[in-house]
TrEMBL record, chain A:
Subunit structure comment from the entry: May interact with RGS9; this interaction stabilizes both proteins and increases RGS9 GTPase-activating protein (GAP) activity, hence accelerating the deactivation of D(2) dopamine receptor-mediated signaling.
Cited Gene3D superfamilies: YVTN repeat-like/Quinoprotein amine dehydrogenase
Transmembrane segments: none
Classification lineage: Eukaryota, Metazoa, Chordata, Craniata, Vertebrata
Protein family (similarity comment): Belongs to the WD repeat G protein beta family.
Organism field: Oryzias latipes (Japanese rice fish)
Positions of WD repeats: 101-133, 191-232, 233-276, 277-318, 330-362, 363-395
Keyword Repeat: yes
One GO MF term: signaling receptor complex adaptor activity
Protein name per its UniProtKB record: G protein subunit beta 5
TrEMBL record, chain B:
Protein name, entry field: Guanine nucleotide binding protein (G protein), gamma 7
SUPFAM superfamilies found in the cross-reference section: Transducin (heterotrimeric G protein), gamma chain
Lineage: Eukaryota, Metazoa, Chordata, Craniata, Vertebrata
Key word Lipoprotein present: yes
PANTHER family: GUANINE NUCLEOTIDE-BINDING PROTEIN GAMMA SUBUNIT
Principal localisation: membrane
InterPro entries cross-referenced by the UniProt entry: G-protein_gamma (IPR001770), G-protein_gamma-like_dom (IPR015898), GGL_sf (IPR036284)
Entry-linked PROSITE patterns: G_PROTEIN_GAMMA (PS50058)
Organism: Oryzias latipes
Record keywords, A-Z: Cell membrane, Lipoprotein, Membrane, Methylation, Prenylation, Transducer
Protein's membrane topology: Lipid-anchor
Intracellular or extracellular location(s): Cell membrane
Source taxon at top rank: Eukaryota
Sequence similarity: Belongs to the G protein gamma family.
Amino acid sequence: MCDQTFMAATFGPCDSCGKASPLMNIYIKSEAINYCSFCVEMMACQQLQKGETLQSLKKESDSLKKKLEEERGKLNDVELHQVAEKVEVLSSLSIKTRRVLKGHGNKVLCVDWCKDKRRLVSSSQDGKAIVWDAFTLNKEHGVTLPCTWVMACAYAPSGCAVACGGLDNKCSVVPLSLDKNENLAAKKKSVAMHTNYVSGCTFTNSDMQLLTSSGDGTCALWDVESGQLLQSFHGHTADVLSLDLAPSETGNTFVSGGCDMKANVWDMRSGQNIQSFESHESDINCVRYYPSGDAFASASDDATCRFYDLRADREVAVYQKDSVIFGASSVDFSLSGRLLFAGYNDYTINVWDVLKGTRVSILFGHENRVSRVRVSPDGTALCSASWDNTLRIWA
Amino acid sequence: MSTNNNIAQARKLVEQLRIEAGIERIKVKQYFSSLFFPLLVSKAAADLMSYCDQHARSDPLLVGVPTSENPFKDKKPCIIL
């Protein structure tokens, strides 16, 4: 599991005992306190009144939590789908498979579009990452990695490199060269080093920084050039399966979802967990921001997708149906955010109306689980990757 | 308002209780102001809806684009009558 010695964010003299040691940065009544862990425990123990035990305090804290939820519930004046009643019902969509990309030798696990809206990189269980031109079905580059299960791949914003990682516990950046004869694997550079598999990776707004999520329960921000760890994000209590960067140019936050059923929002500069959402009933496989950056959706093994608003600080919609019993592996929004495409383990892609909460369409075609769905940067097409060794482009 | 005070007190207590119960992860929440955050769902939902509305016309998967403009849709071959 996760071997985390992460509470120490800074090292220095303790405010209370004066000894130099790893400090726990905590806030009490919005006042920053830098105590070493021994002093924090002493402070906590001294607060225990006579006759109180850990048991009674736990009970009290549970009842207080319930009370908080009640008070919070009073703020929930109306549901999203009720507000959306006056919105027009969507006419049926005419989305069909337009391209089938064949070439991987095994399950395709991840796909990412390039900003030029026509290239894609996909990675597979066979240890290969392939760069495709989606218009012509041409395979432009192929990189062989020394591990199987390449679970994460990402295209750099400039289009000049791709990052991939998986069971090798690393995330490597491969610069793409126009020279067809060049061996790309030789130029591969290991950037991220985790202590467990890499489940997700994305470049930040430039080619210079890489954000990764891992089965070791942490997310991390790396400098591509030096391979140095710039910031690490601790807080999940189980494998982190997915992450997504907030869409704004100036945005410095990202959301991550994991096997602890929590979706956490993080501040990239400080490494702090600013918001946390726990309403799923099973592992969260994928998280994706709404195009405006004010909300995000998550897909989970509990066969539901959920929509969380960051400013209301709560879940505002659940996308589920009695007939949908297989876990959802991946979600993505259409350009306007009105449609939510979700790939499921029953080989289908369900298209949900984000505002009304109803299912608009089902896309059939894959012959095995859908592992990833991604909408192209200009919103003209949807690419889905599947365990049937193919990718499909829908438009 | 007394409700806000109760919430603030309860929150303070829960935060302290969490430290005392030895919970591993210390949560640090930054509230801009207890009056403005969190937003009412009706306001947040209205903003989401207006974003969808503004961008709906330019969403190709939602409204559909003519075959001639979509690079992925195959153009039908000409039929000579």
